[in-house]
């Protein structure tokens, strides 16, 4: 009797499990995002950045892609631990320092740290133009 119940349970559980795995599909399609952040005429030498979906431009993703700015000003964006970002328009915030950072943080205008005041924006696409993800900040 017990064995029959277990067998019948698999008939119900297995298709539901396969359906759940098939629907998850690994999440949203991610596109590579790499760029460079400059301050005045040189690179911003460290910090982090975060992409905030711009809902006013139709971006409905729930993801918040982010990246670390290297000493040469370059960055690569990841989403939930995977390289890239979902397609769409984003407002970009920059924090010139973060816990454990080994370089002295640069002083940049505070407007870049708030998604409501930043003027930095990017459109993530499958085929970006060269320099599409480069960002310029001021003091």
Written overview of the protein:
- It is a single chain.
- The protein has about 140 residues and is of the alpha+beta class.
- The protein has one domain (about 30-135): Immunoglobulin-like (Sandwich), CATH 2.60.40.
- The protein has one helix at about 1-25; strands spanning about 30, 35-40, 40-45, 45-55, 65-70, 75-80, 80-85, 85, 90-95, 120-125, 135.
- The strands form two sheets. Strands 2, 3, 4, 5, 6, 7, 9, 10 and 11 form a nine-stranded mixed beta sheet that branches. The protein has a two-stranded antiparallel sheet with strand order 1-8.
- Strand 2 and strand 3 (about 40-45) form a beta hairpin.
- The longest helix is centred in the first third of the chain and has 23 residues, at about 1-25.
Any chance you could write out the topology, listing elements then pairs?
Blueprint: H1 2-24, E1 30-31, E2 34-39, E3 42-43, E4 47-53, E5 66-69, E6 74-79, E7 82-83, E8 85-86, E9 88-95, E10 121-124, E11 135-137
Parallel strand pairs: 2-11
Antiparallel strand pairs: 1-8, 2-3, 2-6, 4-5, 4-9, 5-6, 6-7, 9-10
Question: Which runs of at least 5 residues are low in confidence (pLDDT < 50)?
Answer: 2-25
Number of helices: 1
What number of structural domains do the residues give?
Answer: 1
| Largest pleated sheet | 9 strands, mixed
**Helix- and strand-based class?**
alpha+beta
The CATH first-level class comes to Mainly Beta
Mean pLDDT: 83
């Amino acid at each position: 009797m017990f064995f029959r119940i277990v067998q019948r349970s698999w008939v119900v559980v297995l298709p539901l499990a396969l359906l759940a795995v098939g629907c998850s599909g690994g999440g949203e399609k991610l596109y590579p995002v790499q760029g460079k952040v400059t301050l005045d005429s040189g690179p911003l030498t460290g910090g982090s950045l975060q992409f905030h979906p711009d809902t006013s431009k139709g971006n409905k993703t729930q993801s918040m892609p982010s990246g670390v700015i290297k000493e040469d000003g370059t960055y690569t964006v990841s989403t939930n631990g995977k390289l890239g970002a979902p397609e769409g328009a984003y407002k970009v915030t920059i924090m010139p320092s973060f816990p454990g950072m080994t370089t002295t943080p640069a002083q940049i205008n505070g407007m870049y740290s708030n998604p409501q005041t930043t003027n930095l924006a990017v459109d993530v696409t499958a085929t970006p133009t060269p320099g599409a993800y480069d960002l310029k900040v001021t003091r």
